[in-house]
Amino acid sequence: MSDRIELRGLQVSAFCGVLPEEKARRQPFDVDLDIHADLTASSVSDNLSETVDYGLLTASVAAVAINERFDLMERFAGRIAEVVLAEDGVEAVTVLVRKLRPPVPEHLATSGVRIHRTT
Q1: pTM of the predicted model over 0.90
Q2: Which candidate, 4, 23, 97, 118, has a CA 20 to 30 Å from the CA of 33?
């Protein structure tokens, strides 16, 4: 499927990491999603009910960040993929999760994980 909905820069705050300080306080993350779906019907009808409602989807992703805890970004990204794939019409998703303040002594702007999952 070549059709996709692209969502960039969803900023969430989550518990994700293995260090004690990462378990004690939320950290900022940036999430990008490529949602693969057949957009043929909605491109003709202009009807929200015939596409993936990304407003609802971003709320679901934010709920994962708010309500769950993760040691690894890999699991965080995987959990987001599970939520996205549960939506009607979604055939595949690519999830990019970036930690905006990685806890390393070197200067590192972000660290991240990108995964691709299909139904």
Answers
A1: yes
A2: 23
